[in-house]
Every structure is written in C-alpha cells, then in structure tokens.
Design goal:
Distance between the termini of chain A: 64 Å
Function (chains A, B): May play a role in DNA repair. It seems to be involved in an RecBC-independent recombinational process of DNA repair. It may act with RecF and RecO.
CATH class of the largest domain in chain A: Alpha Beta
Order of helices and strands of chain A: HHHEEHEHEHEHEH
Radius of gyration of chain A: 22 Å
Structural class of chain A: alpha/beta
Protein name (chains A, B): Recombination protein RecR
Shape of chain A: globular
Pfam families (chains A, B): RecR_C, RecR_HhH, RecR_ZnF, Toprim_4
Largest interface: A-B, 57 and 57 residues
Oligomer: homodimer
CATH architecture of the largest domain in chain A: 3-Layer(aba) Sandwich
Number of strands of chain A: 6
Number of domains of chain A: 2
Family (chains A, B): Belongs to the RecR family.
Strand order of the largest sheet of chain A: 4-3-5-6
Helix content of chain A: 40-55%
Keywords (chains A, B): DNA damage, DNA recombination, DNA repair, Metal-binding, Zinc, Zinc-finger
C-alpha cells in the first residue's frame, strides 16, 4: 500500500502489530479517528498508556487488580479453601461469568510452551506452592482445580503442576472435558468424543 | 463484563469505540499489550496522537498529505486535465492500486447524507468548483469523473455534483457499474444485472 502520509503509515504499522488487525483494517480505524474529535484519539492513547504503565497485579493470585489485593481475594464471601489455577485474566472473567465458582483463583500468567520459550520459571508457580504451604489454619487449601485449556501446552502445564502439588495434602482436580452442552455428538471431533467415553459419569 | 481493574475497563471502553471492535476483542488487545514491552504501547499511543494532531491535507485535492501539496498533485507525470472525485482517502488508495488512472483527485471528505446530518456545505465541493474555475490555461480541466459508491448517498452526491458542474465546460462521467470481473451472472443481484443491461456497451 502506498500511504499518502508518513504519519498515517506509522499509525497503520503500529495498529497492525495488534493480533487480528491487518493493514486494511488499521487504515479504516485511522481514517475513522481522523473524522472524529481529536479528544477521542487523545483519550484512547491516554487510556492505553495508563493501562500499560499503571496496571498492577494482586499479590496473592496475580490477577490484574487496582489494589494490592484483588476484589476476589479480599472478599469474605469466597471460599478460601479452593484455588482454581488459570492461564490468564480472561479465564478468570470467563469462569466468573458462569457464576458457578465461589473459590479463589491463581493466575499463572501463561502456560508452559517450549516452542515459545516459556518454562515453569516464567510462570507464577512458585507463589502457588508457597500460597498452599503458608496458608493459615482457617484458610488451609483443600482443593486445587487446574482449569487450563485442553491443548498440548495446557496438558503439559497441568502435568507439571500435578507433580509439584503431590507434595501437599490437597485434592487436585481438573475441569471436565467432554461434549459441549448443546453440541452435536455426530459432529464432535474423535479426541473429544473418545475422552468423553473414557471419562463417562455414572448415574447416581 | 466485570473488569478486574478500572484501568483495564477504561482502555477496553476506549478501544471498543472503534468501528468493528467489540468489548471481547478490545480485552484481547489489552491483554496482548500487557504481555508485550511497555514501549510497544507507548509507540502505538504516540503514533495515534501524532497522526490525529499533525496530519494535514493537500490544499488542492484535500487528500491526506504531509506537505502542503500532495505527491499526486505535485507530480508532473499526472494528467492535470482530469479530476476524479472520491469520498475519502481510502478510495484514492484503491484507485491508485489499480494503476489504471493517471489524472488528479478531489477528496470530498464524505458524501451527502441527510440521515447523518451531512449536507453539501460539509463537503469539499466549493473548492472543487473553484479548482475548475480558476485553473490555468495549461491545466484546464476537461473531464470530471465521479467515482462515488453506488449507494443512495453516493447517487445523491453524484446528482448534486452533476447539477453544479453543468455550469462549466467539462465532460462529466462516472465509473462503470456492472457485473464484477470474475463475477457469476447467475448470482448477481437484480439491480446490478438490470443496470448492466441498460448500460450495455456496444462492440466497436
């Protein structure tokens, strides 16, 4: 593309570094901003910089938080004995939206991926083990739920965590894998269907 | 969505004001930026503000330009006698990409749309008429091509321009409407097909 202006080109190049936005979409966004008030662009830029430079993380669960302790960790209504281990903040939001979970979280900040150069030491794993080890008597962790994506990296991370967690007297579980609610048996992939037969649930 | 942080929420709200980006995509972009270097966000924000505050327009054709006169208007290799009237910069880029047009442009900066409150006075129409009127002898405009989208607003704008341009001794034309190259006759909508029959081209 032959941009009519260096400024436009710079903006397009920076925007198209974002995932899922190509050069054409980036140009559309730039022309949209040019038509709007100057303050809108300023607000957007300020919000981005503030978000990137000032966002802090909960010292307990490593979820994004404006305070030292996040709303979930500091809530007296959450069950302190269960920790759900997730990859990132989006997973916390997704699980919170179900309104089915009342325990605490632990955000790893990624998953083990040798291809991407992410090892166990790059993740918040040590702090998880410390959290279980150093818990007060009334906050003793009884169960750790591994809620990681059912991918190779997710499974590797879950396997690593399982090994590490065996040293503690906690129940370790994982979220159920199977056919999605409303899913069609016929169109489910073989791996999922195979697993759902192996881990079948007995009627009580 | 229950955001874990006001900063994140602000950034998501500002990003999702952009066309075609919802709150979920905005959150994905925010978390992506959080994982990247701080400089990337800073560069993006700076590029956006610079683009919005410093972009200027060619004084002749109103296309985006870093200089007072854009590259196309100042090029001696372009035909000065033909002006192609378009809605915005994207259309200029699209036509330039075809490499089929060697004349000049005139960017209206929008199209007449009573619903959106855009009237003829909000567009660069007066300057187009002045351009034709005040042209030097060797730059006399001979043809004005109306290259507007074949929508109701585009047709309204074209109709308005036609009326205004009749006062000048210039040829007025519009880009051909018809079946797209490679398009399938069977699947072409009735309006396009009907128009393509009415404005059939005789073999020479």
């Amino acid at each position: 593309m032959n941009f009519p202006s260096k400024l436009i080109e710079d903006a397009v190049v920076e925007i198209s570094k974002l995932p899922g936005i190509g050069k054409k979409s980036a140009l559309r966004l730039v022309l949209h901003l040019l038509k709007r008030e100057e303050t809108q662009t300023q607000l957007l830029a300020d919000a981005l910089v503030a978000m990137r430079t000032k966002t802090s993380y909960c010292r307990k669960c490593h979820n994004i938080s404006d305070d030292e302790l996040c709303q979930i960790c500091s809530s007296p209504r959450r069950e302190q004995q269960i920790i759900c281990v997730v990859e990132d903040t989006r997973d916390v939001l997704a699980i919170e939206n179900t309104a089915q979970y009342k325990g605490l979280y632990h955000v790893l900040g990624g998953i083990i991926s040798p291809l991407m150069g992410v090892g166990p030491n790059d993740l918040n794993i040590d702090s998880l083990l410390k959290r279980i080890e150093q818990a007060d008597e009334n906050e003793k962790v009884q169960e750790v739920i591994l809620a990681l994506s059912p991918t190779m990296e997710g499974d590797t991370t879950a396997f690593y965590l399982q090994k590490k967690l065996k040293a503690f007297p906690v129940k370790i579980s994982t979220i159920a894998r199977g056919i999605p609610i409303g899913g069609d048996l016929e169109y489910t992939d073989e791996v999922t269907l195979g697993r759902s037969i192996l881990s079948r649930i007995a009627y009580e």
